[in-house]
Amino acid sequence: MNTDLRSEVAKTYAEFCKGLANTSRLLIVYALADHSMNVGTLAKAIGLSQSTTSHNLKTLLDQGVVRSKRDGQNVLYTLADVRLVQALDMIWVTMADQLDYKTTLSLNKLS
Question: Cα–Cα distances in Å, from 59 out to 16, 55, 72, 104?
C-alpha cells in the first residue's frame, strides 16, 4: 500500500474510532447488537434521555455504524455490521488483560 493511501486509511480509521469513543455510543452499539429499536425504546434500555440518545445516534449514523429504517411512524435503528460488537469485545478482553498485568506488577512491587 502506498504512503498516501495508508495515511488516508489511517485517518478514516481514526475518525471511525473517534465516533465510538463515547460511553453513550458504546452503550447504543451494544444495545443494538440483539435487535433493532426505536429511539424511545433504546433510550430506556440504556438509561439515557431520548435527546441524548438521538444526538448520539446521529453521530453513529454519520459514521456508518448504525442504519435507520422507517417503520410506520417509528424509525428503527440497527447496527450496520454486527461484527463491530465482536471487534469491541476483542478490545475489551485486551484491556482486561492489560489491567490484570498492571495489577500483578503492582502486587509484585508490594511483596
Answer: 10, 7, 23, 38
Q: Phi, psi (5° rounding) for residue 74?
A: -95, 155
The per-residue pLDDT string of the chain (111 residues; one tens digit each, 9 = 90 and over) reads: 788 889 999 988 888 888 899 999 999 999 999 999 999 999 999 999 999 999 999 999 999 999 999 989 999 999 999 999 999 999 989 988 888 888 887 778 777
> Which three-class secondary structure state does DSSP give residue 34?
coil
What are the structural domain ranges in the chain? 3-80, 81-111
Alpha-carbon dihedral sign for residues 13, 22, 43, 59 = negative
CATH architecture of the domain 3-80 equals Orthogonal Bundle (1.10)
